[in-house]
Amino acid sequence: MHLTKGDSIATKDRDGIVTIEEMKQLAIANEQMMSGDNPAYFVISGIISMIFCGDESNPRPMFYLACQLCKKKVIDEATGYRCERCDKTFKDAVPTYNFGLVIADFTDSHIFSVLGDAGEEILGMPATQFYEIHDNIGVVKDLCNRLQFKEVSMLIRAKLDIGRLQNDGDPLSNVRFVVAKNAGHSSKKDSEMLLKRL
Description:
The protein is an alpha+beta fold. It contains six helices and ten strands; from the N terminus they run βααβββββββαααββα.
């Protein structure tokens, strides 16, 4: 399927499923998004092929400790958790999901960022509960492995990441694709999407 700047297969109104390849093409064709003005939204469907959770030699935290007020990352100090944004120190911090996963379909695969509540929907547990088990890498890997090859449909937010602007000639390297929420997987909708492309 050839896409031009005028094509609008999926929007914030979630009017259809796009393939991962189409999502990438539509993202870089979206002038408002690529100018940094507005994010673009897409619904994709595929399988989880990997969740980045590290291993015994290099465990990767799948969360960060956040401020109770503004949700920004805090600094663990001897007196408590300091939020530079709020300029306050708190006794407790809020574990908040922040991890990457790979979703693949029949056209391509891509790494997506997963933040906050979207992580809870994917992993099936609140970040506070995950925080209690995060030191047990065996349990965490088992959780991630159980989700491998799971069929999912996700609402994806694509936004130009000013902090990532690169000059390698590939505009996609400047775009951050984030799982906004679970879109409710439907085999029927997947089949309809495939039929439209035959």
